[in-house]
Amino acid sequence: MRLKLVYIYSFVVTLLYLLTACTDGIEASSDSNGQGEGKEIPVSIMPKLVAGDENEVSQLRVIIFSTRTSNPYGPKVLVSNQLIDINEDHVAITYIGYNDIYVIGNEPVDLSGINSPEDLKNIQMNTESSLSASKFVFFRQLLNVNVRSKNEIYPEGASVPVSKLEIKLQRVIAKLSVKFDLSTEICENGNPTGEYVNFESMELLRTPKYSSLVPNKYKIEEGFLDNRVFSLGNGSTEQNHFAWSSGDIYLPEYLPMDEIYRMALRIKGTSRGITRIYTLPIGDAMNSIDSHSTEWNITRNRHYSLNIKAVTGYGEESLEVKSNVSGWSEINVPIEITGASFLAVNKKTVEVKSLRFYSYVRFACNAPVEVKLPDEVTIGNQLQMTIEYDDANQKSGRVGFRRGNWNTGNDIIYVTTLKSGTASVELNLQLYRSETIRVGNNPVTWAEAMGYWEEANWIRTGIYNDEFYKRATQETGCRKYYPEEVNENDAIRGKGCWRLATIRENWAINSAEAWCIEEHDTNDRKAYVSYGSGHLIDNYKENKQYRYNCTLDVRPPELSDFIVSSSDVTNVTKGNASSICTNLGSGWRLPTGKEMNYVFLNAGTNGLPNNFFSDSYWGKNEDGTFIVATMSDPDGSATTDELRNGRHTVRCVKLRYTPIG
């Protein structure tokens, strides 16, 4: 499909590019002196459908409204409303000024009579017919596009001009998928009850009768369709196990004016002849981290997936559900969070098992967060805490907790408050009694007891040092230990899950003289040695040897060999990409294709950040070849010259540890 645009210089006319443009060497001027009045400038364009298969769209319409002046607040008038023959060239007209551009694929009704933006906003689509249509409607609007000249087009909010304007079409519907894979036994507070649910049906509540072509709030008085009912047939052959998958359930976009009327699933079953009903709300807020929203909207072009994993009560939202909100296609534009104070978290119970590593809860908010601990709990020996934001906007991130070295007693829950502005959420921090085993009767150095590289005997390392852990040439001490009855690869109690005991933990088992994980307060070459119940000495780590005891912790995370810079630098050309990294300091560079692929696979884990918001990133292989990594080509191996000539985002990498020697 190719489009052509026309410039009329007497009216200071300019170019609109849709998707990908090639000017064939023809340039246009933005002079307004009347020269070349009425002259047509053909521009060949090859649009791509980013959202889905091109075969899904059989018809495209472009509607343009323009101020035709440099006043962004001036009234916009219709300058173009034309169907585009997808097999033929097309001629469109636009003007210098501020333009609203609408592209509609498979229009739901005849839009040839549209004369104003208000006309478009009033277009409604019948839900039953739109969801059963052979081809779905596609739509995208770009508002207040500032067109100054052929090569100066500024999308709203952009400070750098583009010479072509990419329009990424989105479906105007969403889809839902529900998967059951669980034991049918009801559990309460984690304890099995011996009672089982027989799942029978699932209903979808509050499906609106209409949706709008242009996103708009739904008026409740418009009404809802009858509930959609799905029979639940068990696909599992295991006893007391239920498995069922809905496939794709298409939904209209639904932006309720009041969350009381949010869309919901009502799941019905019976146990002991009693009907059990479980109601699950559906929308962006079911996973506010993925959706960047706490509204209960059904947003177009999104995929809402529910994985039901357990029955945790007798009804009304007593199901353990893992929910996910993602872009249906590769498009998933983050939603800016605005409005009054709010705070959303991905879980409210945090298991704080480790002394060495944080257990995290993710949050989304619109103001910086703070943590209020119970009055009897202090940061230090009792509990450690960190707040890590995804970026400088401080609108999302995670809070981490780990146990303090003095906290060895019984199982306990700390009720903690997370606050953002006037909003707050209570978190239950679950801590556990230490499990300490007498292990090392053969005396070793402190570094050996820790499982560290021997250099740790001369340097302060802290409770855990990943560099010294990784550089150890052999497994020793608590790093090597695991109980005889346990498989060494067991993720909970196997090799790597144990650490050197603290002072308090050694005292709790009345141990003979044994190394402690704590180092001396002022001497980096010393660590503490405890004995009996309440006795403590210190000694040099490198030339003194003692026995050791090991405490159950969690296995150290796998870390990448490199670190990644903290934020995206967008809209960068190939010529400037490398300098973005070198300006960060020694060792920083563009990632190789192998490193980019690793980041795409492991973002948010293995010591890597999780704030990658761009569709494409610059990279550079060891042979000096520039590459571009995308979701569909994460190692950049399919990079084309067209991509190399474009603008992409930069994230830089650097070796995590300085090479020895």
From TrEMBL:
Domain of life: Bacteria
Record protein name field: Uncharacterized protein
Organism: Bacteroides faecium
